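Hello,

Our lab assistant flagged a job as stuck in the queue for most of the afternoon. It eventually completed. Since we weren't sure the result was trustworthy after the delay, we are filing this so someone can double-check. Below is the sequence as submitted and the structure that was eventually returned. Let us know if re-running is recommended.
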Amino acid sequence: DPAYIEALARSVEEAYGKADKRPDILVVSYHGMPKRYLMQGDPYHCQCQKTTRLLRERLGWDETQITTTFQSVFGPEEWLQPYTVKHVAALAEQGKKSIAVMAPAFSADCIETLEEINEEIKEAFEEAGGENFLYIPCLNDDDDHIKALSGVIENNLKGWLD
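-- returned structure --
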């Protein structure tokens, strides 16, 4: 939804505007799921990739400034990759000493954003040599977010309510 992409972009612009150091790359981390779902036709992976692409285009960035990853992997089977925790460590090892991470698949901050990203994933980045980690909060109760959600709801109720 264009209003949602706009809300995400504004949150990135605001966070980058307040940052002491501009991040080398924005890691857009989505909740993971088993890879077999993708192989069975589930569109989630493609929707995540499209959201990142639309966000990148709205920000006017090139592909080196943003990347898509997946978090919350558990169990024995392969999940969608790259795994956020491993990817941020690899970025640090490749010389990306300053990163930002956001989780647009979550509408509000929760254990998986506050604990997993802003603690576990941050720690993996720093242990691999990263220096500056910026967590961009979920949209939560931001006015742009509420406007985007209201628009989605209204569009989906057309024909149901007069």
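-- support follow-up --
The delay was a queue issue, not a problem with the job. The result is valid. The helical segments are 2-18, 35-39, 44-59, 84-93, 111-127, 143-157. DSSP finds six helices and four strands in the chain.
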